[in-house]
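Why Divalent metal cation transporter MntH? Reviewers of the renewal asked for a concrete example.
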Amino acid sequence: MRTARLVTLLGPAFVAAIAYVDPGNVAANLTAGARFGYLLVWVLVAANAMAVLVQYLSAKLGVVTGRSLPEVLADRMSRRGRVAYWVQAEVVAMATDLAEVIGGAIALHLLFGVPLVLGGVITGVVSMLVLTVQQRRGQRVFESVVTSMLVVLTIGFCAGLFFAPPDPGAVLQGLVPRLDGPESVLLAASMLGATVMPHAIYLHSSLARDRVRHDARVREARRLARGDVAAAGEPQVTTIRRLLTATRWDVVAALVVAGGVNIAMLLLAAANLPGRTGTDSIEGAHAAIAESLGPVVAVLFGVGLLASGLASTSVGAYAGAEIMAGLLRVRVSLLTRRLVTLVPAIVLLATGISPTWMLVISQVVLSFGIPFAMIPLVRVTRDARLLGEHRNALGTQVAAWVVAGVIVALNVALLWLTFTA
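Here is what the prediction returned.
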């Protein structure tokens, strides 16, 4: 596939990758670095490798079948089953939105002193504007906007490394799998268990599906404009193979960026915040960064957090709408969807409950939703009747079940440790 053509097909994975750098990951990465130095670098590397496989399977489903995972599952369920499945997916989507709105509100508070409730409202309003772009300008422009935010948060979260770079030798040692006591086990379980966000699995299949449809319409329009009758006879299987090649590059590139950002946050804390207390909250981590690296790096970190919150809450609302459309076959306006899911987050911010505690609870709810997304994805992508020759090969299937088992087990362990600690 020509390089120029390949570049035009990139994009869906970069939108899905926002889930891997949302505000819920920030405190965990900084805490791991501050408390254990470079010890847990290997955890993030392993997590990212697993995420590449999971997101590729989701995208492959959308490319090959032309349907999203929620749509495929809906065809296999009774009406009651679809409604019950949608309820759990909806609860997970709302928990995701809660974490992301809180992250945006905290960022606005850190940067401008905006009260948390007002910050949550502003975050919701800006996300509405981003979703309006998707509705009025289409998926391509939406992907560009979200990818631009990914660039901003990457700069914001990684900038500190240029002011105080990590020790290369220590980084290499951190790639060796090892742990150091119960607390490191809990942190490792938290970081690995949060590898895959359920809404990212559902959404990626939808994004890949819509990208295929968009590109097919573009190709057809160009063919008609050229009067190229021969191009109409191009075998569909050849087109799918080309799209899957582009999808692999898209997923790898996007998750290299997202994984790199997570690792950068850990390295930043390991190099500059060792032994610091309070890094288990975003506010505490920001204060520690300001004290250790100065106000410029702290501001860049805050900007990165703001971009993370705005992008992830927009993507989360989009995912929720796609889940509803696929399972219930009911499509509502993205703006209506944004308003409905924004209200609980604003109400909780208004109660005065600790934002860090709410982030923890949202991650617990997400853990409950992991098996409902992971297990069906692995099952349907091995179905020859559904994917034909593109079904998972034996090696891929074994790897997928191992990854699913590890992620589900770690989330169960994380739930147990959270409630018994």
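Residues 395 and 401 are 10 Å apart (CA to CA). This is the kind of structural detail the renewal will allow us to pursue systematically.
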